[in-house]
Amino acid sequence: MDTLMAEIHKLKRSQSWGVVIVLPLVVVAAGTLTSILLGRPLSGGWDTLWQRTVVFHGLAPLALGVAVLASLTWRSEHRGGNWNALMAGPTSSGRIVVAKTLVVALLAAAMQVVLVVAVVLVGKLAFALPGWPPTSYLTVSGLVALAGLPLAALQSALSMVLRSFAAPVALALVGAGAGLVLLVAGVDGAIFVLPHALAARATQVGSGVFGDAGVLGAGPIGTVLLATALLTAVVLASATRTLDRRDVRA
């Protein structure tokens, strides 16, 4: 707990909050402008707006955002003698890995909150949609936050190993592209192998796109949760073992 609180304390003046706020707003703005400029009405009301913002967010922006957050979280550790201090300290590798992952996952969850709030505001103010979004959106948003755990763990592990800020972000783009191709091709098992595909699939639950049945049922939710638990455990264990084998830098 002390390790996690120390990581959270570092966020007070972190640039991560800029990513948490700006990226979702850009995604919603892009979906809004596309609908307005191309004259594509929201024929399905809130559902159409959700598909053009939240589902689109899951295709690539979500993975890129998590990758940037992970790189920012690990950036200070790769500067000066901070890495040596980390490796020589009393905190175990497992606690470091878990704390870093949870911080990235919490930031990603905050990003989802900003996204949903922006969607609601745009739906009411820009498109004057009647009523309010379905409550099922809250369930899906919670699912997205949970499904972001293995993605946060993987991107955190990459940022731990790679001193470059940009390299893990580039790998996230590759992962998001691969995940999209697999999901479009109907390879549903990809969510048990690729965290990027899992995060994307979570945003699609109940949307009816990319092979989704369009129903928020126990089946799709349970599958995403199972994949989340398995992938998170595997990635965290692998990252912990990797950090255990790292040494101080000359």
Write up what this structure looks like.
This protein has 250 residues and is mainly alpha-helical. The protein has one domain. The protein contains 10 helices and no strands. It has helices spanning 2-9, 16-37, 46-59, 61-75, 82-88, 93-125, 136-161, 166-184, 195-204, 218-244. The radius of gyration is 19 Å and the shape is globular.
Largest beta-sheet characterization: none
Mean pLDDT, as a whole number? 92
Helical content band: over 70%
Give the oligomeric state of the chains in this entry, treating copies of one chain as homo and distinct chains as hetero.
single chain
Number of DSSP strands?
0
Order of helices and strands: HHHHHHHHHH
Provide the low-confidence segments as ranges.
Answer: none
Question: How would you summarize this macromolecular structure in one to three sentences?
Answer:
With 250 residues, the chain is an all-alpha fold.
Topology, pairings included?
Elements: H1 2-9, H2 16-37, H3 46-59, H4 61-75, H5 82-88, H6 93-125, H7 136-161, H8 166-184, H9 195-204, H10 218-244
Helix pairs in contact: 1-6, 2-3, 2-4, 2-6, 3-6, 3-9, 4-6, 4-7, 4-8, 6-7, 6-10, 7-9, 7-10, 8-9, 9-10
Highlighted features:
250 residues, mainly alpha, 10 helices, globular
